[in-house]
Design a protein that fits this description.
The complex is a heterodimer of chains A (about 575) and B (about 190). Chain A has about 575 residues and is an alpha/beta fold. Helix content of chain A is about 35%, strand content about 20%. In chain A, strands 3-2-4-5-7-6 form a 6-stranded parallel beta sheet. In chain A, strands 14-13-15-16-18-17 form a 6-stranded parallel beta sheet, sandwiched between helices. Chain A has a 4-stranded mixed beta sheet with strand order 9-11-10-12, sandwiched between helices. In chain B, helix 3 links the parallel strand 5 and strand 6. Chain B has one domain: 3-Layer(aba) Sandwich (Pyruvate-ferredoxin Oxidoreductase, domain 3). In chain B, helix 1 packs across helix 5, helix 1 crosses helix 6 and helix 4 crosses helix 5. Classes of the chains: A alpha/beta (about 575), B alpha/beta (about 190). The interface between A and B is large, with 51 and 48 residues. Strand 8 of chain A pairs antiparallel with strand 2 of chain B, so a sheet runs across the interface. Chain A: Catalyzes the ferredoxin-dependent oxidative decarboxylation of arylpyruvates.
Amino acid sequence: MKQLLSGNEAIARGAWEAGVHAAFGYPGTPSTEILEALVKLPDVYCEWSPNEKVALEAAAGAAIAGTRSMVTMKHVGLNVAADPLMTLSYIGVVAGMVVVVADDPGMHSSQTEQDTRHYARLAKVPILEPGNAVDCRDFMIRAFELSEAYRCPVILRSTTCVSHSRFLCETKDRQARERMPFERNPSQFVPLPLWGRKLRVKVEERLDRQSTAAAAAADLNREFLRAPALGIISSGVAALHCLDIFPDASVLKLGWAWPFPDDLIRAFAGKVQRLVVIEEGDPILEEHIKALGIACDGKNIVPRTGELTPARLMQVKSAIDGQPHPVPTAIADAADLPARPPILCAGCPHRGLFYALSKFDVVVTGDIGCYSLGVFPPLSRTDVILCMGGGFTLAHGMSKAGETRPVVGIVGDSTFFHSGITGLLNMVYNRGNATLIVADNRTTAMTGHQDHPGTGKTLMGDPTIAASIPDIARACGMKRIRVIDPNDIDNTIAVFKEELYVDEPSLIITQAPCVLNDKSAVRAPLHINPDACKNCRSCLKLGCPAIESADKKTKPAINPQLCTGCAMCQQVCKFNAITKA
Amino acid sequence: MKHDIVLAGVGGQGILTIAAIIGEAAVRQGLHVKQSEVHGMAQRGGAVLAHLRLSSDPIHSDLIAAGSADVVLAVEPMEALRQAESLSPRGVILANARPVRNIGDYPELDDILAALRAFPLNVVIDAEQVAQDAGNARAMNMVMLGAVSPFLEFPDDLLATTIRDTFARKGPEVIAVNLKAFAAGREAGLAVKR
């Protein structure tokens, strides 16, 4: 049958049809919806693991135990999970295992723009690159087959555009699969150096066989032979854009580009007069093709950063033709429009945390999550962000460096479990001195409200043990632990006054549910009484999107559609002008 | 037949619902459908954009190049203007006139509306007011769907049927309000189409 599926839904569908038995992951845009789609299909075990390393290792265990398994993450997640991937390439799997990684060219919701193909080369495992949802479903099934054929994990690399675009997909029934037996074999599964050196050689032999197979895999690597004057080698969604934008060019769309299908590349290059490599991300194909002794254009005319959108490919086309690019008629008024960055939602409990912090001269190291938005004015209370868990560890390092202002390290509840615990343990163990904050809104909010070890519920919807952040901190040796409600601004400021200046580590857990996730936290909207309002604009310092003010002469007003009644503005109003509507 | 549609708005305003309903209707028509969504970083409050391509002939790419969209449909006026460069010279731009002012430096609204009304084919309406009159201000996105409906070559009842199916789980009252909002928006679109 045919279904309109997003790339992420199609990845889930393909995995399900391939008989995947167990799926693991950590949420991360643009990969999150894969497991959310898969968990709705029958007979698959799905879980959110605390981080990507745990997820990849668990998937490896499932595949070594003889069931098809998969793991999902965004590109930066593979940084966390890189360690087990490298070794898994050596010891291999019994049943097929696919590592699904979603890159984010253009950095729509990421701190870096990474090209996961580098990891495939580093780990020496095949990587498949779907260009749309149809490919996603088909390639996922092929990825399991390849993984089993070569007994190694296979990476499926999506991108934001591929994951979030919907296409009509042909879908079929699920394959029935039996568990393959796991048989003890330490020389295969235990990479001590005496066995590891032999495995190392086998990996290189495997790459040679895969290169030959990739060159012959016409379903994954497709030639669109049109006129011979111009040949384009491309992959992923960029290859599909090229098919539309260069209607006369011959296109080699590589879906299995590593290990490089050298024979296919040579043959295609021989069929065209001029060769251009158009790849989103780094010049990985281009450099290899040049190393083969084949002349081609590439990043000299193709942008190195960002998405290769049709608009940008039109510019590449002009460069290929040697024509000046016709600039589209600029809409003069549109050019100067202000950007609309994401902001903390109306009623977000993180607002109370950052507003209270804005009353102190502190250095704040933040983390990856909604609370990253505390950096924007008027709150402006985040100074450095590195990575998940980095909120705690950066703070420790800064305090050890002798930073004279109090140092505050923030992580979220989900990132506390992801990689915050080790940082907290380290600070206590090594006698650091910073104030650590867990911005605990009881969910993984930024990616769309996924459960985590602290929520008491699994991805399968089952109740489970809810890990306690204070208990974990106590077990790590943390002595000063406070749990407060950041919606209570006066108390939050008072607790900061007590904790920021003590001479030992302290942990403050600001705990209140995300109002988008827990509707029971939403109350009746508030109203600003214009007669009582003196236009002092104190409420605007909260940066709440529900409080609107067209210009400095206009008294602020609350938009009742957006207001969730959190009453922070009521607390900061000196004139009692804010009441229930 | 080909319709390249750019949808824009602010996170939480419901453009993805519009995209889903048009996409589903196109599938029922047996058209080739490609739909691309780019969410803002946060769930709410940032600018959001979706591209929707419908065609009777096969198409490869899911994105619409600048200057080639047949329709720009925005549920917020500044976001309409931001995406206006996508519009082809023969295209129609539709915008909800009610701003979302969640940024400090929101431009003069009258200037934005004047710029939108300067397009040869434009539908600029206070969709939130129209939706409120229909029973619920939050059905604003269905008003805008109604407004664009005369410009899409669908059989008369197809979009209404798809709305009914989309909101089936939410009960007859929600369906009725959304259909009423859709019909009111359609009138506004028809007035310009004629």
